[in-house]
Task: inverse folding
């Protein structure tokens, strides 16, 4: 079974800092679609920064 973010955007790059705990996502999805994918996976999300 694919993870919801990867199903929504197969080209997404996901990085994890388990000590923080923070997960970074580089995706072409808009912010709302990304938040829905994270919520569908059973997690909450909070935008900390945007890097372009």
Result:
């Amino acid at each position: 079974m694919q993870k919801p973010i990867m199903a929504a955007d197969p080209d997404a790059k996901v990085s994890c800092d388990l000590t923080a705990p923070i997960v970074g996502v580089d995706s072409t999805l808009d912010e709302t679609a990304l938040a829905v994918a994270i919520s569908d996976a059973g997690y909450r999300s909070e935008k900390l920064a945007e890097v372009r």
Q: What stands out?
A: The helical segments are 4-8, 31-40. Residues 15 and 23 are 6 Å apart (CA to CA).
